[in-house]
Amino acid sequence: MSRIETVNPQEATGETKALLDAVQQKLGIVPNFLRVFAHSPKALAAFLGLFENIGQGVLDSKIGERIALVVGESNGCQYCVSAHSAIARGAGLSNDEIANARNSSSADPKANAAVKLASALNEKRGDITTMEFAQAKAAGLSDAEIVEIITHVGLNFMTNVLGKSTQIKIDFPKVDLLSNTQKAA
Fold first, then answer.
1. 17: which of 12, 75, 80, 181 fits an S-S bond (Cβ 3.0–4.6 Å)?
2. Is 60 exposed, middle or buried (0-12, 13-18, 19+ CB in 10 A)?
C-alpha cells in the first residue's frame, strides 16, 4: 500500500485539478505517481514542465525511455521500470531493447553510448571519470545530447525516489526487477 494516498482527479480542485485534467487529456490516464505528485501542485507543475520540455529536446523518445529504464533498474524502482517498460513498448522499442536498456546497453551505437553514460552518471551521482566523459564524446554524443542525458538521469532519479519512498501502487503491467538490483522496501 502506498505511504501517501493518491489524489483522486475527480476530487481535485484549483491548480491541481487543471494539471491533472491536462494529463488525462494528453495521456488518457493519470498514472499513480502523478496522483502522488498532485499533493503539491507546484511539485506536479515542476515535474510536468521538465518532462514536457526534455521530451522536446534533441534526444529521441526511444533514448529517453532507455535512460529511464537503466536508471530505474539501477535504483531498484519497480514502479518506474514497470511504467517505462510499457511506455518504451509504446515508443517502439522491442522487448530485447528494453532488456538491453535495463542492463546498460543497446544494439544501437548512439543509444548504447547514451545508456552507458546515463548508467555511469546515476551510479556515480554525476562524479564520472574523464575517460567516461571522453567515451561519450568519442561515440558521437554532442554537448546538447550529453546535457539532456544528464537531465533525463536527474528527472528519472527524482521519480525513482518518489516511487520507492512512497511505495506507489504499480498501475502498469508489473515488471520484476533484475536480481542484481536493490529491491524497494
1. 12
2. middle
Task: Supply the CATH classification number for the domain 61-166.
Answer: 1.20.1290.10
Name the nearest CA neighbour of 178 among 100, 122, 63: 100
Q: Which amino acid is at 130?
A: T
CB 4 within 8 A of CB 36: yes
Residue 39, phi then psi, degrees to nearest 5: -60, -25
Distance, CA of 18 to chain centre: 23
Question: 10: which DSSP letter?
Answer: T
Q: Torsion angle, CA of 147/35/167/46, rounded to 10 degrees?
A: 30
What is the per-residue pLDDT across 142-163, written as a single tens digit (0 to 9) for each? 999 999 999 999 999 999 999 9
CB-side exposure of 98: number of CA atoms within 13 Å?
20
Contact 98, 149 (CB under 8 A): no
Residue-wise pLDDT for 85-112, tens only, equals 999 999 999 999 999 999 999 999 999 9
DSSP string, 50-102: HHHHHTTSSS-HHHHHHHHHHHHHHTT-HHHHHHHHHHHHHTT--HHHHHHHH
